[in-house]
Amino acid sequence: MGLEAEIARLSQELGEALLARGWLAATAESCTGGGVATAITDIAGSSGWFDRGFVTYTNEAKQQMLGVSIDNLLRHGAVSEAVVLEMARGALARSDAGISVAISGIAGPGGGSDDKPVGTIWFAWADKSGRQHSLLARFDGDRRQVRQQAVRQALSGLLALLK
């Protein structure tokens, strides 16, 4: 199955799982630029399970829209576990969602470093029962491929937290 078909399948499954639980989802995206929200809302009926998406590309947007602390941004950088966990919690706090995903990474082709090469993506998922999970991934490929793999991982993680 191609990546696009897999993303569509995961989005459909996510919608069914959220409907079954009676929850809405929210996204807090940086490097994917709204790609997860797009994948979810590509499914007809998604207004029944998707509340909102935050595209917080700059550090200022992460602070203003999601309440990410300047301290974490300065100490760890935007592409860090501390920041994505704050983003995921911030998306929950600023929405009617029961579950959220946050993504921050380096899609490339520039912007990488020895510590955080291109393809480095941090994810965090949180739900209103207080569960949260984070993951560091490193994806290969060009900018589009890295972003698509990140969308797939974000959706998979939402499904995993729901189960």
Notable features of this structure?
45% helix, globular, 6 helices
Overview of the molecule:
The two termini are about 25 Å apart. It is built from 6 helices and 5 strands; from the N terminus they run H-E-H-E-H-H-H-E-E-E-H. It is of the alpha/beta class. The mean pLDDT is about 95. Helix 1 (about 5-20) runs parallel beside helix 6 (about 145-160). It is globular. The chain is about 45% helix and about 20% strand. It has a 5-stranded mixed beta sheet with strand order 2-1-3-4-5, with helices on both faces.
How big is the Rg?
Answer: 15 Å
What class do helices, strands and sheet pairing give?
alpha/beta
The portion of residues forming beta strands comes to: 15-25%
Q: Helix proportion of residues, in percent?
A: 40-55%
Task: Please work out how many helical segments DSSP would assign.
Answer: 6
Instruction: Report the strand count.
Output: 5
Mean pLDDT across all amino acids: 97
How would you write the strand order of the largest sheet? Answer: 2-1-3-4-5
| Uncertain ranges | none
Give the CA-based shape.
Answer: globular
- Sheet of most strands: 5 strands, mixed
How far apart are the first and last residues' alpha carbons, in Å?
23 Å
One letter per element, helices H and strands E, the order comes to HEHEHHHEEEH
Layout: helices, strands, pairs:
Layout: H1 3-21, E1 25-29, H2 35-41, E2 50-55, H3 59-66, H4 70-76, H5 81-93, E3 99-105, E4 120-127, E5 132-138, H6 143-162
Parallel strand pairs: 1-2, 1-3
Antiparallel strand pairs: 3-4, 4-5
Helix pairs in contact: 1-6
